[in-house]
Amino acid sequence: MLGELPPVVALPSNVAEALRPVPLFAHTAGLYEAPPASPHCRRGSGGGEAAVMPQRVGAAPLPRADSRGEREAASASPREAPRGGPQPSFAFVGHGMETLTEQDVDVLLKVLETRYGKYQAAKQQSTERYLTRIETDVDRFLATHYGGGDDDAASRFGGGVASFIKNTLVSRIPSPRRRIDGYGARPKGTEAAATASSTTRGCESRTDGLPTLKASSYTANAIPFNYLDVRPANMEAIAANLVVLRHCLAECFAPGNTVHKSLLGPIVRGVWDQSLRPLQKSAKELLEVAQQNVRPPLEYLFLRRRRGDAALWRERRAKYDRVATALQDDLKYLHTIHEMDREVVEGQMQARQAADEGLSDYVPVSGLVLSRLHRLENEHRTVLEFWRSR
Questions:
Q1: Which of 11, 67, 166, 240 has the fewest CB atoms within 10 Å, counting from its CB?
Q2: What are the boundaries of the region Disordered (predicted)?
Q3: Domain map of the chain by residue range?
């Protein structure tokens, strides 16, 4: 019975060496390093020669071998770097890729591009959803926490709005350096009063013609679409909205207050849990597929065979590079804005960053929340400024 079983070790023949199971694709890293001068060969455990490319130091581990001979072959792979160039980035074992053709590589690239197209469509839909959610949640927060419920709300601050409109001494939109904490324009000579009214709801008087925060309530959609052609009839509501918006902007980075706890925190956590974290997971999975299933055969055929049209091979490499680079950029972007949002939620980011750091290519979820508040504040301020002297 035992004599009928195949031997444990590979037979000392090239046929047995070629037929023994080996992983088709190895974990590798890098498509951008210069190719090595020549491949290295090693005599396999069965006596045949197996092509082995130098393995990059620090590369991902190879899949588990199916036999003791394969484990020994993987551990015995040389780790050499070609002279005068960077370390190569691949580690292939056995003859598993000898049967690959250029058509196989083209199919792999086509599948990769198809999956990347689906990923892009999902990313677009996810982005549209969470942008809409942010605007909706900001508007709901303003109406819930600062909305007025009584009928005579407009009469409480009518006189203040009238004086604001008639006051021609108040300067136009101030320069950025005159803003407090980077939020909201402050008329000249009224910084102290504006700061006091934006940090407490008990302020009883203002000198800029606007109502006090205590006397103000927020009215959603107060600005009509034709406000530049026809004077809005609800100027009082617009002025009250402006007071509320400036208060919210000034309080955004103060941990523990209502704006931070009920607006920034819930929106940031909700968008990450429902939109950005699943998107991050999809990008990671697709990048792993590209690096483990597409790059190894692409490198193998390009570096080992060197047959075919050079322009065609450059086109194939460009297709892979485009997808892999885009996914890496997405992951870097998501990681960066996640750290920025974490600092905001944990109260580590201060308001001075909004004024001192300037524009950035990275816009976290918390930045989109602030952007919505800033746009609303700018719209209301524009209406009042436009009709003030008319």
A1: 166
A2: 60-93, 179-206
A3: 1-99, 101-390
Torsion angles phi and psi, residue 291, rounded to 5? -75, -30
**Amino acid at the residue 248:** C
The span from the CA of 245 to the CA of 339, in Å, is 26
Which of 69-73, 89-93, 148-152, 378-382 has maximum average pLDDT? 378-382
Distance from C-alpha of 270 to C-alpha of 72, rounded to nearest angstrom: 50
pLDDT in tens, 332-369: 999 999 999 999 888 765 544 544 555 678 999 999 99
Single-letter code of the amino acid located at 276: L
**How far apart, in whole angstroms, are the C-alpha atoms of residue 334 and residue 354?**
20
Mean pLDDT for 158-164 is 36
pLDDT tens, residue by residue, 23-77: 444 444 443 344 444 444 444 444 444 444 444 444 444 344 444 444 444 444 4
- What is the C-alpha end-to-end distance of the chain, expressed in Å? 106
CA-based nearest residue to 165, from 239, 102, 110, 92:
239
3-state class of 327 per DSSP? helix
Say how far apart CA 52 and CA 50 lie, in whole Å: 6
- Record the tokens describing residue 295, joined without a space: 């790059």
Do residues 184 and 246 touch, judged by C-beta distance below 8 A? Answer: yes
Distance CA 208, CA 213 (A): 13
For 52-98, where are the alpha helices, taking DSSP H only? 68-75
Average pLDDT on 209-232 reads: 89
Read off the amino acid at residue 331.
L
